[in-house]
Structure of GST:
Amino acid sequence: MAENMFLYWGSGSVPCWKAMIALEEKGFSGYKNKLISFDNNEMKGEDVLKLNPRGEVPTFTDGDVVVNESGAICEYLESTYKDKGTQLIPSGTKQRALVLQRMNEAVANLMHKMLLDYLYEFMETKEEDMNPDTLARKTQTLKDELNRWNDYLGQTGAYLTGPDFTMADVYFFPFIGFGVRLGLNLNSFPNIKSYYERLSSRPSIKATWPPHWKESPGSFKPLTGKM
Amino acid sequence: MAENMFLYWGSGSVPCWKAMIALEEKGFSGYKNKLISFDNNEMKGEDVLKLNPRGEVPTFTDGDVVVNESGAICEYLESTYKDKGTQLIPSGTKQRALVLQRMNEAVANLMHKMLLDYLYEFMETKEEDMNPDTLARKTQTLKDELNRWNDYLGQTGAYLTGPDFTMADVYFFPFIGFGVRLGLNLNSFPNIKSYYERLSSRPSIKATWPPHWKESPGSFKPLTGKM
C-alpha cells in the first residue's frame, strides 16, 4: 500500500512532521515522497499546486485520493487503515473522547500560544527590542499552557492520554520538538521533558526527525533559562 | 440518549454553534443545556470549570463522558453514534478524504483570515484609524480565501463537498453566519451567498441560530460594500 502513497513535505514543518509520524505508525514506511525546499518556495511549484491549490505542505496522495491538511491526512490514514499498524484513535467511547479532545486542544492552543505568537516573534525580533509587558504576558500565557500539558502527563503517565501512544501524541509531540529546536527550556516542565526524551527514540519519531535539524544546531536560542 | 447529554454554550460563538448543529443533525434535539453569558464571564463559573479547566464553551458531557473543544464534540458524536441521524463523515474513501480536508481547511484558514485577523480587528478599531496598507492586505487575503470557498461550492453544488450535507458544512457554515452578522457582504461570492441563504432554513441551523441575533441587529457593519 505504501507504494501507492506520495507525500510532499518540508523539513522542520510541524504539520509535515505530524503527518509523517502518522504514516510511520500506521506501517507505511517507504512511501514515495519529495522533500521540498521552503527557501526556494517549492511548495508553490507546479507539482504541488496541481494537487493542492493552496501551495502548502503536507500534500498527500494515496492512489487517486488526494488529501491535504495535516489533520485530514492523519484522520484519513486512521479511518481508512483502521486495522493496520498502531490504532491511533481508540474504540472505547471514553478514551476516544479524550484523544479527540487533546488533538483539538493541541491545535487550538499550541499553534498560537507557542508558535505564532511566541516563538516566531522571537525569530523576527530581538528580545531587547520587545515591549517588556507584551513579552511578560506572552511568556506567562505559554508557561500556563505548558503547565497544563505537564499536568496532563502527570495524570496519564507514559503518553498524553494513558498507557498507549495515540493520535493525541501524534498531534502534540511535533510542537514540543519544534519548541525545543527553537530553544524552549523544558526544565520547569519535568513531565514534558521526560516525555520528550522518551519519545525522541520512538521509531516513528526517530525516522521522521527533521533531517536538517540533525545536520545543524538550532540557530535560535531565545528562551534558554527563561521558563 | 439526548437526555443524558448536557451542553454549556454561549450565544453567537462559532465553536458552540458548530457543536450545536452537529447535535441537531445527529438527532439529539432536546439535550439538556445551559446558555452562559460571555458578558458575565460565566464560562469561568465553577460548573464549567470542573468539567473544562480552560473555562471555555462549548463544554459537553454525554453521561459520564466529558468532551470539550468543538471539533472533538463533533467527531465524538459522529464516531459514537454513526448510524443515528445524518451521516456526517462519509464511508467512501475518496469522499471521506475530501470532507476531512475541508473540515481542517475551514478551521486552519477561516478562524484567522476571517475572524481573528479581520473581523475582530474591525470590532476594536475604526476603519479610518487602520493602517491603509494593512487593511488592503488583510482585505485581499480574506477575499482570496472566500473566492476559494466560492469556487469549491461552484464545483460541488448543493453542499461544500457534494450533494450531501456533511461535517464540512457543520464546520464551515458558522464562520459564514458569523461573518454576515458582522457585516460581511456576500454579493461578490454568489455561490456562498446562495448556500448561506439556503442553509439558513435548514432545520439544524434554524434551531441553533444564535438567539440574541434574532433579537437585535448586528451592531458592526464594517464591511458593507467592501468586498
Q: What stands out?
A: The longest helix of chain B spans residues 93-124. The CA atoms of residues 56 and 140 of chain B lie 32 Å apart.
